Amino acid sequence: MNDAHPTVISRNPADPDDVLLRIQAPGAFTTVDTVERARAAQPGWLLAGAAARSAALGAVAAAVEAAADELAALAVREVGKPLAEAKAEVARTAAIWRYYAQAPFQPTGEVHETAAGAGLLLTRRRPHGVAGLITPWNFPFAIPTWKAAPALATGNTVVLKPAPEATACAQALAAIVQRVLPEAVFTVLPGGATEGNALVSAADVVSFTGSTPVGQAVARAATSRGIPVQAEMGGLNAALVLPDADIEQAAAHIAAAIAGYAGQKCTATSRVIAVGAALDPLREALSEALRAVPVGDPADPATVCGPLIHEYARDQVGEASRGLSVLAGGTVPDRSGWYATPTLVEKVSPGHRLLREEVFGPVASLLAADDLAHAIRITNSVPYGLVTSVHTADLNTALTGLDLLDTGMIRLNAPSTGVDFHLPFGGSKASSHGPREQGRAALDFFTAGRTYTLAPAGSAA
What is the reported pLDDT for 459? Predict the structure, then answer.
């Protein structure tokens, strides 16, 4: 096990000279020790009972709400999230903690009659032990929360390894949670690949969100140990626009899904598929909508598209659109920070990287389809299958095609971005591995089913 101790550095992407923190990563052995402390704390947390766990999660929700302004400002500064989105994420974070605060009182199993004779058969769900959570930087409060809250509600303890770029946000969340929970029940472990690998090697259940290559490696490592694992990874999401759609509304929704938070969401739209006669009006409306997107300082309440997280990420947007027919954007604003303008391109060849790879930025390709069947084939032609938005006034047409889309989520007349935390979240193919996140699905994932046979003493075998 490599136990090197590199420095974790977090910078403000709107002002790269602003360094939020510079700390030494703990290394692999410290990571394993942290998991062992969490494992020792887990029985006490479970035996504290449903009321104690419910009260603790509810108290976290209240504390997040009380610190909402400070948390939102930190997300703006550390990960460049526009202020309006940062405030919405913090509100969502509190709502998730409150939602799962009710989970400890939910039934954990069922009672059945035996097939023959006296006795009872019981099913019951029990926690795995230590939940190892590896989270990205783009939703620095909400994603750790929608993993940690159900894990804690069901009696697991948690070790969270956040992305280095979101370390300060993770520490702020931990400071709130740790004031409420017993020692070692929730721990944040900063670091990079070394700490992540060690966490996967030691935890009892693993939940990951991040890039596809890393997620696939995490899934292989956890599966080889025989422990439950879920991995939420990339997307190459399409928006299908039919000729009968409200083109102006569709353009507004799609522009928001391309450019919101500089396209740095796994649910962002990166392919726009215009069906038949929708192509020409959509080209004009969407180009205009993207040019109108406010780009600038994420601390400005009017900003929709702030900076990208790294200089490399900013450069990837320009590189991906180079040499293509650019309908909107394609430039780098003349300002400090890692900004790119929302970009729409067309005449993209089938083998181009924009149609094969996720470019995590505000860039999308406009594609033409002859009819709905053709649009569905284009949608399904990529390695990913997270979410598709469909824009049409004809519900019958939509329902005819929805089941043929190879994506985990479908949004009708709405942006591809935006999900409800009380429903399952996940995709198909290279977008997701393992059971769904969020909602009641998360409670199932963080527990293991058991079957009990209760036979009366002295009964025949």
Answer: 67
Half-sphere exposure at residue 123, Cβ-oriented, CA atoms within 13 angstroms = 9
Tokens of 381: 């032609």
3-state SS assignment for residue 66:
helix
pLDDT at 1: 46
Catalytic residues: 232, 266
d(CA 205, CA 222): 8
Picking from 347, 352, 341, the residue whose alpha carbon sits closest to that of residue 308 is 341
Burial of 458 (0-12, 13-18, 19+ CB in 10 A): exposed
Give bridge partners of residue 288 from the DSSP assignment: none
DSSP states of 366-400: EEEESSHHHHHHHHTTSSEESEEEEE-S-HHHHHH
| Residue 58 burial by Cβ neighbours in a 10 Å radius (0-12, 13-18, 19+) | middle
Cα Rg, the chain, nearest whole Å: 23
List, run by run, the mean pLDDT of 10-residue segments along the chain (461 residues).
73 93 94 98 97 98 98 98 97 98 95 91 96 97 98 98 97 97 97 96 98 96 97 95 96 97 96 97 97 95 95 89 90 87 93 91 96 95 96 85 90 92 92 94 96 84 56
Cβ(153)–Cβ(104) below 8 Å? yes
Show the 3-state SS of 284-350. HHHHHHHHCCCECCCCCCCCCECCCCCHHHHHHHHHHHCCCEEEECCCCCCCCCCCCCCEEEECCCC
Question: Smallest Cα–Cα separation from 342: which of 334, 333, 351, 355?
Answer: 333
Tokens encoding 251: 């353009």
Strands 157-162 and 186-188: parallel
The whole-angstrom distance between residue 375's C-alpha and the CA centroid of its chain comes to 26
CB-side neighbour CA atoms (13 Å) of 4: 8
Taking alpha carbons only, the member of 280, 298, 292 closest to residue 335 is 298
Dist CA 431 CA 425 (whole Å): 11
* Cβ–Cβ under 8 Å, residues 7 and 23: yes
Q: What's the rounded Cα separation, in Å, for the pair 130 and 283? A: 50
